Amino acid sequence: MNTLLRTHGFHTYEMDKQAGYDVALLLTTLLLCFCGAVFVLTSSAVHSWQIFEGNSHTIFWNHVIRLGLGLAVLITLTFVDYHVYEKLARPLVFFSILLLIAVFFLPQPSGATAKRWIYLAGFSFQPAEIAKFVLITYLAMRFAALREQPFYQNEAKALWGCMFVAALIMLMIVIEPNLSMALLISGIVCLLFFIAGAKLRGLVIPAIATLSCFTLVAALNSYMQKRISDFLAGIVDPFQSSYHVYQSLVGIGNGGFLGVGLGQSTQKHFFLPEPYNDFIFSIIGEELGILGASALLICFVLLLSRGWKIARNAPDAFGYFLAAGITISFALSFVINIGVTLGVLPATGQPLPFISYGGTSLMISLGAIGVLLNISRQAQSGKSIIHSFNSSDRLY
User: Fold this and answer.
1) Domain membership of residue 229 as a residue range
2) pLDDT band with cut points at 50, 70 and 90 for residue 2
3) Half-sphere exposure of 267 toward its Cβ, with a 13 Å CA cutoff?
């Protein structure tokens, strides 16, 4: 274990860079948020009319309010020095664990099948979303310390400590149960370890233990078993897919190349449950067709490319790992949501960042963009650092 991470495998290169915020990242984020607001409006009107007794815009205005709060968070964190999070990483981990414990003791709405939310004074939030980005911050802090002070730390102790904290957070999320979020976090953790220089053989045992835990939990939950069995059946015959996935595929198929037109979706008329949330991409595919859905995917790719560029140009190791972790989180969220929509992944409850009906996920995601913008700003004019890893230093 003491050779799991080779910090000397990292190399830094200096390059010229103009100071300033990453305007392309900001504009892409705002464009995605605008598209999200438009499609929340078009996809939620019928459901809002039924839920709120004749008011077809209530869900939309709720989304707009949360979007406004999220943009306020983005602006605020853009001006907060990201090194503050490095100092607060440990207290934030402790606080997020307390929140994850609290969900098991606080009251939940009647009929709730999982304990994932905290309800206080008319507001609600999902601690797992907070824990996800807190864990990214914590790992970034620990990896940066190993990168910058390799001779002053017990590498094995630090790395096992990182794995323990990640496993503890994932375990509590699994117990909620929220298997999709736990799987998402496990993917983020594995990729962060990998880009930090972890050798694949050193991750085998933790990976096997994590998969075994997920398999056991899935085996003990009947609804998870059904989702997996429906997914496997859908691979052979799409008509045997789960109801949600089948209706999603019908909507995308209806859209064809150019779509049926903005606001003209038929699947939002109670065929897809909550079409403004996890399956909003299928409504986009139906109304705008392959052409419109592809344009949206291009925006996602641009956002991810800007995030990765910010990571590589970060002024220090902490900024590199923090920006990389945030970008990885967005990338996996995009892949999981769209994969489920297209029927290539089992159905989960993972929202599409910046597009799906907003809440904790939307505000936390916009806050993360603010952090990326601050990192880009601090890559000062003159010289900034590009971090890379020499694959020849990694033992497979």
Assistant:
1) 13-390
2) very low
3) 31
